[in-house]
Amino acid sequence: GIVTPQGELIALVKPQFEAGKEKVGKGGVVRDYETHLEVLRDLQAFIEEKTAWTVVAASHSPLRGPAGNIEFFFYLCPPTRSGQARQVKLDLAKVVEQAHTRLIKNEGARQSHT
């Protein structure tokens, strides 16, 4: 494999490729809060149900993708040495809210000052 048994991963989550076509806007950009949240929750559930890995942290990228997409990071850890999943409570709604506040809502304020 590409990761050692006790290795850790940081994964870039690109909602434009995870959301259904009907949820991706003009130019391939996902702008909707609910779509971002749904993508993160669905991907977290998939990872944790289909693998023994756990999403232990999440954040948004401080930079938008080339087309303007908000992208996210998942920090993934394997199960404990005893094979147990790690118990972590993530507030993905807060992660998405911070992304929208910092990258969308503040964008208008920056543009009005230039």
Automatic annotation (TrEMBL):
InterPro entries: RNA_MeTrfase_FtsJ_dom (IPR002877), SAM-dependent_MTases_sf (IPR029063), TlyA (IPR047048). One of its GO terms (molecular function) is methyltransferase activity. It holds the Pfam family FtsJ. GO terms for biological process: methylation. Coiled coil: none annotated. Keywords: RNA-binding. Residues 8-75 form the Ribosomal RNA methyltransferase FtsJ domain. PANTHER family: BACTERIAL HEMOLYSIN-LIKE PROTEIN. This is Ribosomal RNA methyltransferase FtsJ domain-containing protein. It comes from marine sediment metagenome.
